[in-house]
Design goal:
elongated; mainly alpha; 0% strand; 168 residues
Length: 168
């Protein structure tokens, strides 16, 4: 498996969306809502709605662009490796969509005047679970990228613009 090239390299648009989405996700984590009372500011609430919609739109665009692009795994990659890659990618998309949808749900429930109660608690719990799941899946994704970087099998270089692999 060492030294075999990837089955493909990703398009420039796919790479831009991948790394751009990393930046948007990081921004969302750092600017997160600390307290529901922050949503009482109409400008802040509007910004949160817009951010969640842009987040989901970019995620949908990324899914659309990536739909026709196969895996960068070498043809010789074991079946378990292909299945693990698909599961982690699918899980990341689901978790990231759940973050946006549950964030919008929190905003809608808040706008309807239900600042507490079971429905709000459910929306917040769903949001927190999806964020936690995304962290775990992203860590697995990064660990897999580093694993493939160590293998020098071309997977790293298919998406990462820096520290290109040297064939063995």
């Amino acid at each position: 498996m060492h030294g075999t090239g990837p089955s493909q390299s990703y398009s420039t648009s796919a790479k831009l969306l991948h790394w751009g989405f990393v930046g948007i996700f990081a921004y969302g984590i750092f600017k997160q809502v600390d307290d529901l009372s922050q949503l009482e500011d109409p400008n802040f609430l509007r910004f949160e709605f817009i951010f969640a919609c842009v987040f989901l739109a970019l995620l949908a665009l990324r899914l659309w662009i990536m739909r026709g692009q196969g895996s960068a795994l070498p043809a010789a990659a074991p079946v378990w490796n292909r299945m693990a890659a698909k599961l982690v990618h699918f899980g990341m998309y689901v978790a990231l969509m759940a973050i946006g949808v549950s964030g919008l749900a929190i905003g809608v429930v808040f706008t309807l005047g239900m600042h507490g109660g079971a429905l709000m608690e459910f929306c917040i719990a769903a949001h927190e679970v999806s964020i936690t799941a995304s962290y775990g899946l992203i860590m697995l994704h990064v660990a897999a990228a580093l694993y493939h970087r160590a293998l020098s099998d071309g997977v790293w270089s298919a998406m990462v613009p820096l520290f290109k692999e040297r064939p063995r």
